[in-house]
Write a structure and sequence with these properties.
Elements: E1 2-5, E2 8-11, H1 17-24, E3 31-34, E4 37-39, E5 54-58
Parallel strand pairs: 1-5
Antiparallel strand pairs: 1-2, 3-4, 3-5
């Protein structure tokens, strides 16, 4: 299955969002959007990834 994470094309076997995030090496805290739709952390376990999905992984940035 081909997906895009933060603009990077990946071929994966995993089908759940949690597995994809773990294999990508995501470190909390972060927010996730799939195809432009925010996915709350409470739904990460039950969200499946489909071929062609675009995932944006956003980490907070401190500034001043």
């Amino acid at each position: 299955m081909n997906i895009t994470i933060n603009g990077e094309l990946l071929t994966i076997k995993e089908a759940s969002l949690v597995e994809v995030l773990q294999s990508f090496g995501a470190k909390p805290p972060f927010a996730v959007a799939i195809n432009g739709e925010f996915i709350p952390q409470s739904l990460h376990d039950s969200t499946n990834i489909n071929d062609g999905d675009s995932i944006e992984l956003l980490s907070p940035i401190q500034g001043g």
